Each structure stands twice: as structure tokens, then as C-alpha cells.
Amino acid sequence: MQLRANPVPSFIHSESELQMETLLGKVGRASDYYHGAVNVPVFHTSTVVFPSLKAFQDSEKNSFETLCYGRLGNPTTWAFEAAIAQLEGGYKGIIAPSGLMIITTVLLAFTKAGQHVLIPESVYGGVRRFCENVLSELNISVEFYPNSINSKMKELIRPNTSLIYVETPTSIDFKMTDLPAITRIAKKSNIPVIVDNTWATPLYYQPLRHGADVSIHSATKYILGHSDALLGIAVCNQKTWPIVKKMSYFLGVSVNSDDAFLGLRGIRTLGIRMQRHQSSALKIAKWLQKQPEVARVYYPALQEDTGYRLWKRDFTGASGRFSIQLKKANYDSIASLLNQLQHFSLGFSWGGFESMIVPVHLNSSKKNLLQETTFCLSIGLEDPEDLIEDLAKGLRRLKMR
Ligand SMILES: *Cc1c(COP(=O)(O)O)cnc(C)c1O
What is the model's pTM? Predict the structure, then answer.
């Protein structure tokens, strides 16, 4: 069979010095390869056929870079990987079918039996579950460190520490981490630092530029932004890419191209969406601070927040997710607050166009969510005044109980 040579584009945009909002529209495209189409097409393929024995053998040598077999990626998934990697100043990206799947892949890539890993106390619940139920069973010692540890991290490092995992800000209590302080310590012992950057998105924070070795996103959240698909990605440097890529290959991690396409589509509007999420969240968080029913707002973009200094120093913006703690409230009053909200829905996940509110416990190890009166809010793209009115009515119901 005769096949025409079909080289794979690099998908890297040549003017990398552009402003972020402009770059969002350029990364991960290759119109010259696809008949001028603005967007990279969706490739549906498992099997790839080769014109000769030689080409078949060559493809095995280069299976991460050329179309070889569907599970190893295709131009749609590569375009998404290249786009996020370029936005974050990384070497290459590695895609996965969910945020949690890329996190577990990365954790397995850097840890062997007998080693020790450092994980933040209020880490995303799925990560804690994996550490406690899978890593521990593999004879890996999991240590949860206090969220605001920063330079004291030095004292926790052991000779067998294989990785430091960071969320900044942390899930639920939104504590900022001094990433440069931690990476300086980690580099002395040659320990990779892995950062979950889901909250800030590639637009507002680039962990690799602050010394991290891998930056992870649940693209399910803001990058896709429409609550209609799951996707994960890790951005690596030159040293960590081969390690994570091989683990992803060994585990058989692969992604549906339709979802990778939605990831690419999401990137195009990320700038304008994040601006709106940020400005509405700031307005609503400031309003909540003034309400007598609210004990505390956890949001590093507020000047009163303990993380404000670090956020201001390292980030270029804030997303629309934060949490609040109410003063005393019992189950019934919380139920009456939540059940009749018009614009905030109760559900898992966040980062979509629609506002969400969920009860959480400040420490992800505790199971009974409603014992404390803390809620995570994800501010959507609705009119912020409508959202404030909804919450104001909710707080009034709280008082009436
Ligand atoms: C949701 C979330 C994840 C997991 O992502 P999925 O795409 O749902 O698997 C990981 N980290 C953080 C901070 C999250 O909020």
C-alpha cells in the first residue's frame, strides 16, 4: 500500500513572548497542516497502518512522537499537550482522562516501595484516598505536612523521600505555599516537586517558572470550563518528561480525542472567562467578609488573607474558587440556606460557567462533611449582583431557623 508522508507538526507557536491572552489563541494550532482549518481536527483512531516493514519498525523506535497506535496519542491530544506546556513554559505535556489519573500516574512515576512522599494535609480528597489506599499498600510511607509549612519542609525530608507534592493554594482552606522556598530545599536533595496548579490555571501561575518539576491540572475545571467532560494534564521539564511519559505508557493512560478537542477549545476563551471569574469572586468574597453570619473567608486574593503576600508576589491573578466559614449553624439551617438557592448548585467539581457551593470539612481526612460550617464556592459567569442577592437571601434563611 502507498501512503503519503504526513509529518506531525510541532504545535508550538513561534512567538512565545506574546501576552498570555494573545498566546491563548495561538498555542496548539497548525492550520498549515490541516488544509487551513483554524482548529486541529479530532482524530479518531486506534489502529495506524504502515506502508512497509521498515516504517513499522521505525515507528516503534519513535512511538511517543509519531502516530503509532491510538493509545499513545494522536495529533489532537498532542496539540493540547503542546498548548498547555507552552503556556506554562514547560518542555512537554502529558494528557490523561482525568485530573486524578494524571496525578496518580505522576505519583507512581516518582515513587518506589520503601520510599517516603510528602503530601499537603488538605490535599484534594482523591489524592489523599490514593495515597492512603494504594501507595500505603505498596509500602510507600505517606506523610501529610501542614499546609503552611514552607521553609520548615527541610525538617521533614528523609534520605528516602522521593517527592514533594504541593497544592497552592490548597484545596478547601486555600493556604498559599512558598513554592520557591520549597523548591530550593528540594533541589539540594534532588527531590522532584510536583504542583497541582488547577486553581490558578496556566494563565495566573506557572509553577515550572518557580522551580517546580511537574505542574498538574485537572483540566476538567477551568480549562474545559463547561462541566461537560473530564481531562487531566501534567506539564514537565526535560528531566521529568521521560519519567512520567513512560509511566503513562506502562499504565495505558489514554484520552478520547473529543475530550482533548474540548480542552483546546476551552483554552481559547480561558482569558476572558478567568477575568470574569476573578472579578466576580473578588466582589462576592468582599461582600461575604462583611456579613455578620460569616466568620471567615479563605481567599488569597483578599488583602486580609494570610496568603495574600505570596499570592501577590507569585501569581498574576486569582480564580473564582474560595471558601467561607459560617458562624454557628445546625444541619437544618444549613439545609434551608442551600436548598433554596437559585443560582448556586450543590455538586462536585468546580470551575465551570455555573456557580457551585459545597459543604466541606477543612481537613480532607475527616469524613463527616456537615459537622463544620465551611463551604467551597465556585463563582461562575453569572451577573455577580444576582449571585450576591441569592446568597443574601440564603443567609437570611439561616437566621430565620
Ligand atoms: C478536581 C480536582 C482534581 C481531580 O480532577 P478530576 O479531573 O476530577 O479527576 C485534582 N486536583 C484538584 C485541586 C481538583 O480540584
Answer: 0.95
